[in-house]
Amino acid sequence: MTDAAPTPPSPPAATGVSRRRMVKALGATLGAAAFGTAISPLFRGSELNADELMQRHYKELSAADKQTVLRRLEAEAKEASGRDVTIKDAQPRPKTKFVYAINLSVCNGNGNCVEACHKENNHDRDSNQSYIRVLEMPKGTMDMEKGNTTYTGAVPQKDKFYMPVQCQQCDEPPCVDVCPVQATWKEKDGIVVVDYNWCIGCRYCMAACPYHARRFNWEKPNVPAAEVNPNQGYLSNRVRPQGVVEKCHFCLHRTREGKLPACLEACPTGARVFGNILDPKSNIRWILENKRVYVLKEELGTKPSFFYFFDK
Amino acid sequence: MEAIANVSRVWRRSLLGFALAVVLPLVTGCGDAEPPSPAARPTPLAAKLPVHTRAVPGVPHILVDAGGQATKLACSTCHSMKQAVPTQRGGSGLRLFHQGLEVAHGNLTCLSCHNPDDYDALRLADGRRVPFERVMDLCAQCHGPQARDYAHGAHGGMSGYWDRTRGTQVRNQCTHCHAPHAPAYPTMRPTFKPRDRFLPVRSESHDD
Q1: Does A133 touch chain B (CB under 8 A)?
Q2: pLDDT tens, residue by residue, B42-52
Q3: Which of chain A's residues have a Cβ under 8 Å away from the Cβ of B202?
Q4: Can you name the residues that pair with A276 across neighbouring β-strands?
């Protein structure tokens, strides 16, 4: 300030950042940090910690924040299982939209995909959890509600066909619309993901999904340390907390690195086809152009990125 | 034989297309060794890596007991001294090595696929010799729709990379999944079942 006599104080807007705003921002930051420190003793010995509680929504995390979060989760995973795991945050690649198709003339219901998903995605061992259900369907209907998942014995049966159902990665996903906290959303490459640290476990999305594709972690997933898949992704197969919803993410920790999904590699019949629909020379594009494909519950207008077809 | 004899001209032309599309990569990638390691960093102009087709066994051998010692013999060892029987189907009536060989493959005779002029190779319908390693040429003569779907990645299992600019894709051949003498895919047993909390266990076994 100058000591020249009466000069009117400059208007706050002119200085760019007003002192008041700076003080406010500082207070908010210090306040949040102080609050975190203040409450941290409450979480001692519990699974939740203050850092986790104060973590922001995935989309609001800066690159540096993400690194902090990923390293923290890796440390927690190491503490829980004794295993070194890598948790990455693979991003959608440009000009890529993932689409899946299953040849139901070939699928014989052996369920190897279900098991491969179970192992790849660190699912709870006690419940045989998996993102895939194979429905044994009576011939002559596409109504998935008529399917049965508990069939055993030799497959395929002559009067049945087999339809694996997992997340259809809808272009109009009802699960995303109903989430009250935006913990689930559709990514640029078409994959519908869940931020497990933001999900409040209300399970609205499960009620909204017409394909029964979402799963709830009633308990903390139990995966023996030796069986943990250490190649993990933040939005995909890291071991989930208790009380959150999860779903098929097209193995994004693999597919965003160019690899095929685990369920496809495990299929002994070659019924599964996966690829980038924006590539005119891709396998998946050829199928959509040359086979009579159909989608589940088309009348609902969910626009799945998941197709089924028969050879004849 | 009928099925093969009916191969039309149009079909042969499309067969040539198939041979170029599917069989050529086969020639380049062979050996059941590990596929080449994926390209570490994709570049904007990255060329697609070739598809690695898993090799099938080459010329078959049988093990015989030659004075207490296991000895490998090629098919031609015996067959070069024997007269071919064009009407023979399957193993019934054969007394030496092919007893009990179940053949459930359409109406084919042995010589529909095996080459009477050279038993260490196979034979196409037009009489051309084709080595065992290129058995897909042979299958494609009758199984056109499957061959077409295979060429477009819509038939036959695969592993590795969907994005071939970043890694190698590994493909099967026909005989990895289909036994040539009885090619119908076998029935299987699902071993991994869900244990949903709210799902009534109906225990519907097909075996009961």
Answers
A1: yes
A2: 445 568 888 89
A3: 148, 150
A4: A98
Q: What are phi and psi of B71, to 5 degrees?
A: -130, 135
Could you list the residue range(s) of the whole structural domain that residue A217 is in?
98-309
Cα separation, A16 vs A19, whole angstroms: 10
Domain count, chain A: 1
Q: Has residue A54 been placed in a domain? A: no
Instruction: Compute CA distances A108 → A42, A134, A156, A188, A270, whole Å.
Output: 53, 10, 5, 33, 10
> In A, which residues are within 8 Å of B179 by CB distance?
none
* Chain Cα centroid distance, residue A277: 20
Residue listed under structure tokens 């003793």: A41
CATH number, domain with residue A266:
3.30.70.20
Contacts A283 to B, Cβ<8 Å: 152-154
Please name the member of A128, A154, A311 whose beta carbon is closest to the beta carbon of B187.
A154
B149 touches chain A (CB under 8 A): yes
Q: Each residue of B76-121: pLDDT tens digit?
A: 888 888 888 888 888 888 887 788 888 999 999 999 999 999 999 9
Does residue B28 lie within any of the structural domains?
yes
Q: Which of A121, A140, A141 is nearest to A130 (CA)?
A: A121
**Smallest CA–CA separation between B157 and chain A, in Å?**
4
- Distance separating alpha carbons of residues A43 and B153, to the nearest angstrom: 52
| pLDDT interval class at A7 (50, 70, 90) | low
- Interchain contact B165–A (C-beta under 8 A): yes
Contact A87, A70 (CB under 8 A): yes
Domain coverage including residue B168: 2-177
Whole-number Å distance between alpha carbons of A311 and B154: 10
| Domain annotation covers residue B196 | no
- Does residue B197 fall inside a structural domain? no
- Structurally, chain B folds into a number of domains equal to 1
Contact A211, A168 (CB under 8 A): yes
